[in-house]
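To whoever is on call:

I kicked off a structure prediction for a single chain this morning and the downstream step that reads the tokens threw a length-mismatch warning. I double-checked the sequence; it's 253 residues and nothing unusual in it as far as I can see. Pasting both halves so you can look.
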Amino acid sequence: MTTDPALPRGQDKVATVRSMFDTIAPRYDLLNRLLTFGMDRRWRRRSVRELNLPAGSRVLDLACGTGDLCRDLKAAGHNPLGFDLSPGMLQAARTRAPLVLADILHLPVPAQSADGATCGFALRNVADLDKLFAELARVVRPGGRVSLLEVAQPTNPVLRAGHRFYFGKVMPRIGGLLSDRAAYEYLPRSVAYLPPTPEMLALLASHGFDSIRRMPLSGGIAQLITATRIPSNPVDPQSVLPLDGQAGGEQSP
């Protein structure tokens, strides 16, 4: 977890994240396509596939932004419902799915009312990751699935160095030219909010999820975490499967 004193915490973080995404919303999708060379589309489609839910399932998309994952969920035959903290992002949304302005740590839905949940690149943006996992446990029915996308750092030293340079130096420059530089400087630094991978997966397990898998994507610059909700709570953290895709490996998107 972050030890950077310059990064905001608590309600200061909530306000910072809301304001930042309001600011970058108009060109958010354009920057995503450019900065990831279109790979973000493959990652989201993979996230939807890994839910392994039947068509017609009710899936909550947390931190839905402009609705990219909602569109992919809809295309897969699911019934998505999106939630986001940023009014600007919701105003820029391009989806027919219903969207709700809400803090995803306090979802305005009944317990066990969802068949599944997705979250795209927002684990590091919430004020309290433990509370987010607890809220997922509350709203997803037993047997339901979660599929959580997030950035990551490659384990290969060469890829790691190249990714660090691109993510920390090139991306903020491009973001500054086309949108807001301060926001695109903050986003790479926000990776520091994520706890070490074993700690994060054990935390998810402690809230009543099992069959937990972590899959590195595109050489490890992104990661996908999937899990199944079980009736009992808590669950033994030993139910977490081996890290970095060893339980199944990275499949082609």
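Update from on-call: the warning came from a stale cache, not from the record. Cleared it. Sanity check on the structure: The CA atoms of residues 71 and 96 lie 8 Å apart.
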